[in-house]
Amino acid sequence: MTSLSTHVLDTERGMPAPGVRVTLYRGERALAEALTEHNGRITDLGGGALENGTYRLEFELTTYLAAQGRAAPFLQRVLLEFRVDASQPHYHVPLLITAYACTSYLGS
Known about the structure:
Blueprint: E1 3-10, E2 15-16, E3 21-26, E4 29-35, E5 41-42, E6 53-60, H1 61-67, E7 77-84, E8 90-97, E9 102-104
Parallel strand pairs: 1-8
Antiparallel strand pairs: 1-2, 1-5, 3-4, 3-6, 6-7, 8-9
């Protein structure tokens, strides 16, 4: 089976983003949900049990920004849909955010 981790970095502040709620979906079914730790990471979302298929990560930004005393003037939630090949042992999906922009990539 394949494991999944994520890392949220607040590039506007130049720091990790703790307390971002991340939910993993397969289709419309929520499989797992967690908050990023103090270092902005979730090391194993989904319990290492991902099979072949298409998944979606939803990153809730409004609550995180509000906890920082910041408004969410543009981005409210970021959704990333990606395909898992279960022959790969691990997927790492980082997200870099500001209040107005984001970017992601397949990490290592």
